[in-house]
Give the backbone structure.
Amino acid sequence: MADEQLRVLTRRDLLRAAGAVGAAAVAGPSIVDPLEATQAAAQRAPATRARETLEHLTAGEADLVEAIAERLIPTDSNGPGAREARVVHYIDRALGGALASSRQAYAAGLPALDQYAQASRGRRFLQLSPTEQDAVLRACEKGEAVGFAGAPQFFAMLLAHTRQGMFGDPYYGGNANFVGWDLIGYPGVRTMVSAADQRALEADRLRPNHKSAYDFDVFNKASARAEAPGFHGHTVAGHFDSEGGRSDGD
C-alpha cells in the first residue's frame, strides 16, 4: 500500500512538473514577485467556511447541535438535509424567543450526550463516524444511554426542534432556500388560489412559489415574533395541514 501510494504521488508530481515546463516554454522566463505569489496562492486556496454569528448557543454547542441535526435529517439521495436548511441557525435564534424555556435543557443535555459518546464509544460525538453517531442517538432515544438520565426527553426535544427548523416558515431562520418545503413537495403559502391552481395542486403540478407567509401583507411580522416558531398552518386551498404536508395522506 505504501509503495502504491508513493507511485501515485510521484506520478502526480511528474504531471505537475510537465505542466510547469510546458507553461514556461510558451510564456518564457519571468521574475515572480513573492508578494504576488503569496496573494495568488491565497486566491487558489479553497475557501474555508466562515463561522456564523451565534446569538444564544456557544460555538461548541452549535457544532454539536448541527452534527446531531444532520444525523436526524441527513443529506441523501432524497435531497438536502438539516445542514442545508440551517436548522442550527433556527434553533439558536429561537432559544432567545419562543424556545427560551429550552435553553437550560440544551446547556445540560449536550454535554451529557457528548459524555455518553465518550464513555460508550471512546470518542466525543463529533469525532465519531456517522454510523456510530446514529448508535449514540438511538441509545438516547430508547433510554439506553447509561449515565444520561434525561436522554429520551432531550432526544425528543431536539428532534422536534430539528423538524421545526427543517420544515417551518423560513422567516424563523430555518428551511433556508425552502429546501424543507421542496423536500416534502409543499408548494408554498398562497392567500388566493385560482381554479387553475387548485387543479394543478390536485394533479401535483402546482409549482412552488418559494414565499414565506410573511412576504404577504396579511400576516403580521411583529406578532409572529411572539408566537411559537415554525409553520403555523397557512393553507393552500385548505389542502395542507399544520406541518406543511398534504392532509389527505398524499
About this structure: Confidence is low (pLDDT under 50) at residues 1-38, 230-250. The two ends are 52 Å apart (CA to CA). Residues 59-177 form one domain.
